[in-house]
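User: Just a sanity check before I run the rest of the batch. Below are the structure tokens for the first item. I only need the designed sequence back.
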């Protein structure tokens, strides 16, 4: 074997060993870099994913919180508005009912007082008219009958004379009462009750 052949073999062997060693080192370095890159990528991806998840969770939480707050606020507002409207309606209804009751009570009291005053005035007017009619009738009857003889007692009058005098007095009294009531406010129809009372009073005279 010549030296050339030996050198060639040695070179080949050396090259193979060098290539193997170089390949191993390159593979190791590449693996390290790949691992480091993967780790960095994973870390970055995890961070980005966490951030995105946190943002989405925060948004969802905020939306839910806002909805809950809005519902609570709306309920509170509705209750407050309902109470306010109820109070206002109650006050309005109370005032209306009070006014209605006041008017009704006023009318009732007015009618009662009017009736009472009417009765009192009727009685007073009846008495006054009766007295006036009696006086007037007496004067008229005295004028028509002439001056009576004071020396002759009443018992000496005959029954016919007494009946005639009574009829004359009644007729005169009726005319006098009609005259009086024609001058009163409302006329005879308004004072019909009083008129009947006075007629009854005249019949008793």
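Assistant: Here's the designed sequence for the first item:
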């Amino acid at each position: 074997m010549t030296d050339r052949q030996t050198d060639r073999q040695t070179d080949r062997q050396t090259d193979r060993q060098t290539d193997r060693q170089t390949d191993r080192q390159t593979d190791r370095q590449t693996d390290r870099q790949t691992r480091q890159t993967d780790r960095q990528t994973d870390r970055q991806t995890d961070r980005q994913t966490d951030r995105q998840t946190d943002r989405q969770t925060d948004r969802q939480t905020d939306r839910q919180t806002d909805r809950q707050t809005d519902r609570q606020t709306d309920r509170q507002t509705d209750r407050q508005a309902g109470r306010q409207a109820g109070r206002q309606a109650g006050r309005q209804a109370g005032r209306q009912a009070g006014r209605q009751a006041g008017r009704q009570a006023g009318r009732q009291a007015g009618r009662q007082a009017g009736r009472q005053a009417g009765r009192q005035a009727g009685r007073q007017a009846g008495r006054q008219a009766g007295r006036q009619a009696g006086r007037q009738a007496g004067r008229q009857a005295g004028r028509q009958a002439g001056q009576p003889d004071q020396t002759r007692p009443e018992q000496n009058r005959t029954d016919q004379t007494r009946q005639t005098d009574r009829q004359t007095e009644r007729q005169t009294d009726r005319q006098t009462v009609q005259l009086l009531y024609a001058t009163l406010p409302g006329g005879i129809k308004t004072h019909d009750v009083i008129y009947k009372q006075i007629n009854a009073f005249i019949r008793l005279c």
